[in-house]
Specification:
The chain is an alpha/beta fold and about 300 residues long. It is about 40% helix and about 15% strand.
Amino acid sequence: MTLGAFKTIFTLEEEAELFQYVQQMEKMLFGLTSYELRKLAFELAEKNKKAHKFNKELGVAGYDWYQGFMLRHAKHLSLRKPEATSAARAMGFTKVAVKKFLELVEKVIDINKIDVERVWNVDETGISTVPKSLSKVISTKGKRQVGSLTSAERGQLVTAVVCCSASGRYMPPMLIFPRQRMKAELMDGASPGAWAECHPSGWIQTDLFINWLKKFILHTGATKDSPVLLILDGHATHTKSIELIDIAKENGVILLCLPLHCTHKMQPLDISFMKPLSTFYDHNLRKWLRTNPGRFHS
């Protein structure tokens, strides 16, 4: 299939399939950038074993392909420039945005007859081996420099993926350690059922989130006949994957994204769980460092 100077490696049916993915993601409030659309195109090409010249190192389709795709679907798609984060947050959290989201939640729940046991929220947070902020300490007047114990000068970041239902049930967390290979002792004292993954950065990646989703399906017993609603921050790159969407759809997991630039006010776990966790974790980490001088926290 071609259009002027722009060529595509997809058939009409395959391009229609990609367009449907884009529409489905928009319907569930996922925000796609041009780069993320190019990543979806690369993923679809690999999935369908297409011969292509896309950038395999970055895993994205070319910009010329993107231009052609947008031209072919100009009646239905457009690229809008996002606001700067601070301004967008101020303007994004509006009655209109909140009302639209809540109406969509109500519609999904009513159509699928979902009760509170089957409404879930997932979020991730970075946990550092050093306190995020240093408390003020009492010092002798006139002293120029005041020290405080830390575990390491920069510390390491471990990501915790946490999920709970509207009824108060918690799924065991997934912990992502900043390393290539796992050591069993890193999970000593972890919550029952918690499991570990590894990535050099310590941050969540698409493949790790797909692994998490598979465990979520087993934990909740989600099926097409008994679907669950999973509310998440769909504007994070690791959630924008054809494989992820397919697995969710095949197993009765309805993905719904929180409105763009509203997560700071509407992400349940972030407001009610992550902030207290960060506060009490920092408090206990400082306490541990004081009672274990010379040792480091990992």
